[in-house]
Amino acid sequence: DVLLLQLTNTSAYYMYFLLLVKSEVYFAIIAVCLLRRTAVCCNGERP
What we know:
Layout: H1 2-41
């Protein structure tokens, strides 16, 4: 019973960790895309 509880806690911790990493990766990709777009847009040229 204790082993099952420990396994449940560990799996929940790993799921939370994976979700956190995934959201950080998505945030980094979006930030890079936005920075690239503003760099291209504001490179001395008016759209």
